[in-house]
Specification:
single chain; 51% helix; mainly alpha; 136 residues
Length: 136
């Protein structure tokens, strides 16, 4: 009997070759939800679609090489509208207003605000002093 199933005598005595289960065994009470069933049934369709698309792409690439496309040629630029070039103007708030907002709404040091806005530390100090609430 061991010869018939290509096993050694020791394997036959133990009950056959031990194979690791390919997937974790699910508990007997586990049942797939409807979503899981749909996903499991459509998974093989996606794999087939990917194989078909890959084969179609490779065939088109091969045909292009036969027509004379060199492998190092870069693809043509798209015919879409050209990218907009950013203007040189700085965007956002003017530096004095930005500094005033940072002084009012943050606890940054004067030196940090100076580096963010590009203003002189003395101008920022003057803004801070001017924006103080008057004593009542």
């Amino acid at each position: 009997m061991a010869k018939k199933h290509n096993m050694t005598l020791e394997e036959a005595a133990e009950g056959g070759p031990k194979e690791e289960p390919k997937q974790k065994a699910r508990p007997a009470s586990y049942s797939m939800s409807a979503t899981e069933r749909v996903f499991a049934n459509s998974l093989h369709l996606m794999d087939g679609h990917l194989r078909e698309e890959k084969a179609r792409h490779e065939a088109a690439l091969k045909a292009a090489y036969e027509r004379g496309l060199a492998k190092d040629d870069k693809p043509q630029k798209s015919l879409a509208s050209p990218k907009k070039v950013r203007s040189k103007k700085p965007r956002g708030m003017p530096p004095k207003i930005h500094a005033a907002v940072l002084l009012r709404e943050t606890e940054l040091s004067l030196r940090e605000i100076s580096s963010i806005t590009g203003l002189d530390i003395y101008k920022i100090t003057a803004l801070k002093l001017k924006n103080r609430k008057p004593a009542a």
